């Protein structure tokens, strides 16, 4: 198993697991590898080093005194964003382009309250807000529109 450090065209850094270098190259050539944050399929491979288990009793967690680099902080924020996005997807129903209609039905008690997500135009969103219906625009990563792994 090859674990590669990958970067998309938008500079998001993530990890990819492949059976071999050939698998990575084949999947990349066919456009099957994309950024889990933004869905960008322009992927480059970064420098990767093998992990060596030398039997140390270290927990692998950084000490409180360690300074987090900006690159590390970016990865931490990306991981947090992906965890939040996965939680939103797992706990809401995708109503697609019927979002405004479904939000109104829930708000006015016509259907049982539940978490929903979907698409609404700017005009629809403004209209919902004017009616006192709390909505929030949120761009979901393309990778989350399919099956979660």
Quick synopsis:
The chain has 149 residues and is an alpha+beta fold.
Characterize the structure shown.
This protein has 149 residues and is α+β, with helices and mostly antiparallel strands. The protein has 2 domains: 2-48 and 66-85, no CATH class; 92-137, no CATH class. It is 32% helix and 15% strand. The chain contains 4 helices and 5 strands; from the N terminus they run ββαβαβαβα. The chain has helices at residues 21-29, 70-90, 99-107, 122-130, and strands spanning 2-8, 13-18, 43-45, 93-96, 116-118. It has a 3-stranded antiparallel beta sheet. Strand 4, helix 3 and strand 5 (116-118) form a beta-alpha-beta unit. The radius of gyration is 20 Å and the shape is elongated.
Q: What is the topology?
A:
Elements: E1 2-8, E2 13-18, H1 21-29, E3 43-45, H2 70-90, E4 93-96, H3 99-107, E5 116-118, H4 122-130
Parallel strand pairs: 4-5
Antiparallel strand pairs: 1-2, 1-3
Total number of beta strands: 5
Question: What is the straight-line distance between the termini?
Answer: 18 Å
β-strand percent reads 15-25%
Strand sequence of the main sheet, in spatial order? 2-1-3
Average pLDDT over all residues: 81
The helix content is 25-40%
Q: Number of helix segments?
A: 4
The structural domain count equals 2
In terms of structural class, how would the helical and strand content be classed?
Answer: alpha+beta
Radius of gyration: 20 Å
**Low-confidence residue ranges:** none
């Amino acid at each position: 198993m090859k674990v590669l450090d990958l970067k998309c065209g938008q500079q998001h850094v993530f990890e990819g697991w492949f059976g071999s270098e050939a698998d990575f190259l084949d999947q990349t050539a066919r456009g099957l590898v994309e950024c889990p944050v933004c869905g960008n399929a322009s992927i480059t491979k970064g420098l990767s080093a093998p992990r060596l288990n030398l039997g140390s009793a270290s927990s692998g967690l950084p000490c409180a005194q360690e300074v987090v680099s900006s690159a590390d902080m970016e990865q931490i924020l990306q991981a947090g964003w992906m965890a939040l996005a996965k939680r939103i997807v797992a706990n809401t129903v995708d109503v697609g382009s019927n979002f405004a209609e479904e939000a109104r039905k829930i708000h006015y008690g016509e259907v049982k309250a539940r978490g929903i997500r979907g698409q609404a135009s700017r005009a629809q969103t403004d209209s919902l807000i004017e009616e006192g219906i709390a909505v929030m625009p949120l761009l979901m990563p393309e990778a989350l529109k399919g099956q979660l792994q």
